[in-house]
UniProtKB/TrEMBL annotation:
GO terms for molecular function: cis-regulatory region sequence-specific DNA binding; DNA-binding transcription factor activity, RNA polymerase II-specific. Pfam families: Homeobox_KN, PBC. InterPro entries: HD (IPR001356), Homeobox_CS (IPR017970), Homeodomain-like_sf (IPR009057), KN_HD (IPR008422), PBX_PBC_dom (IPR005542), TALE_homeobox (IPR050224). Coiled coil: none annotated. Keywords: DNA-binding, Homeobox, Nucleus, Transcription, Transcription regulation. The lineage of its organism: Eukaryota, Metazoa, Ecdysozoa, Nematoda, Chromadorea. SUPFAM superfamilies: Homeodomain-like (SSF46689). Residues 5-188 form the PBC domain. This is Homeobox domain-containing protein. Residues 189-251 bind DNA. It comes from Caenorhabditis angaria. It is found in: Nucleus. Its main location: nucleus. GO terms for cellular component: nucleus.
Length: 334
DNA sequence: AATCATGATTTGAA
DNA sequence: TTCAAATCATGATT
């Protein structure tokens, strides 16, 4: 306390500075600021602060800012885009088909997630830029009485944005989670298999058995069937794939079905104009006409017919024998 | 709960 | 890519 007037004034000045530091921008006592910047001791104080700052080595090491390029964040982003949450608005792109009728439900829920996600993302971005702006002007303001380099401001901004992006990661993470749950619940058709409607299988079987000699529907035919059955084209393809192989595996049993559908068709044809041939009802003839696999008849080699895959030449001789047998006995057991 | 039926997926060949 | 074949996983039946 020995006769120095300066400390007094200086401490007063410091107090003022501290006060400003504590205050936020929204006080508009520009007068005080003005007074501060004009204060005779300001320059001295400023220099002292600079010196102190240098001594404490608070200044930033420049350029060492590694950008980790967060692989996890990239993973999340990729997944969100792949799942149709983040990317361009999915219009008619049928994602993974092969699912029952609740596909629309899934899409609707996915879209809901999408909307919420984008909403939140925007919110975060807005908040981030607002806050950044705020800090920027605050620091700029304080640089009147405190040594603050541009670099430091930028660094501060960088830190803030980092923090905000952390929040974004969280958002993305929870969105991913939601999508995964939704997906496992709705889209994993394998886990939630639904049998086709009776009417749908009826249509498919009708086609199959009336094209037994070549049960490979063209793309157009598949589309048509899909429309009729209210299922996807892939499902039609699956169905025919399964049907062909399973028919082959148990011809004896399938024969009943074949006859049934043949009879049905014949009946239908009779109603329409009697032009359809009633071959399906004649036990003797049915072997050659109904049987899709001409090669199954003994002593015949149909390989020259170039009828692609659906030719049973080398398939399961026992079954063939059984089938032959069943033609005569009309009764056999696997 | 076994077992069968059936739609979907995987694998490998052409 | 499409297909056959094997396999998986769930629904329906018994």
């Amino acid at each position: 306390m020995v006769g120095t007037t300066t400390p007094n004034t200086l401490s007063e000045l410091l107090a003022e500075v501290m006060k400003i530091n504590e205050q936020t921008l929204d006080d508009n006592d520009n007068q005080k600021k003005q007074a501060l910047s004009c204060h005779p001791m300001r320059q001295a104080l400023f220099e002292v602060l600079v010196e102190t700052k240098e001594k404490t080595a608070l200044s930033i090491r420049s350029g060492v800012d590694e950008t980790p390029d967060d692989p996890q964040l990239m993973r999340l982003d990729n997944m969100l885009v792949a799942e149709g949450v983040a990317g361009p608005d999915k219009g008619g792109s049928l994602g993974s088909e092969a699912s029952g009728g609740d596909q629309a439900d899934y899409r609707q829920k996915l879209h809901q997630i999408r909307v919420v996600y984008n909403e939140e993302l925007r919110k975060y971005e807005d908040a981030c830029s607002e806050f950044t702006q705020h800090v920027r002007s605050l620091l700029k303001d304080q640089s009147i009485v405190r040594p603050i380099q541009m670099k430091e401001i930028e660094r501060m901004v960088y830190i803030i944005q980092k923090k905000f992006s952390g929040i974004q990661v969280q958002l993305k993470q929870s969105t991913c989670e939601a999508v995964m749950i939704l997906r496992s619940r709705f889209l994993d058709a394998r886990r939630k298999r639904r049998n086709f409607s009776k009417q749908a299988t009826e249509v498919l079987n009708e086609y199959f058995y009336s094209h037994l000699s070549n049960p490979y529907p063209s793309e157009e035919a598949k589309e048509d069937l899909a429309r009729q059955c209210n299922i996807t084209v892939s499902q039609v393809s699956n169905w025919f794939g399964n049907k062909r192989i399973r028919y082959k595996k148990n011809i004896a049993k399938a024969q009943e079905e074949a006859n049934m559908y043949a009879a049905k068709k014949a009946a239908h044809g009779a109603l329409g104009g009697m032009s359809a041939n009633p071959y399906g009802l004649l036990p003797g003839a049915s072997a050659s006409l109904l049987n899709p696999y001409p090669a199954m008849l003994p002593g015949q080699d149909l390989s020259h017919m170039a009828m692609p895959q659906f030719d049973l030449s080398a398939y399961n001789p026992q079954l063939m024998a059984q089938y032959q047998n069943s033609m005569e006995n009309a009764e056999q057991k696997p």
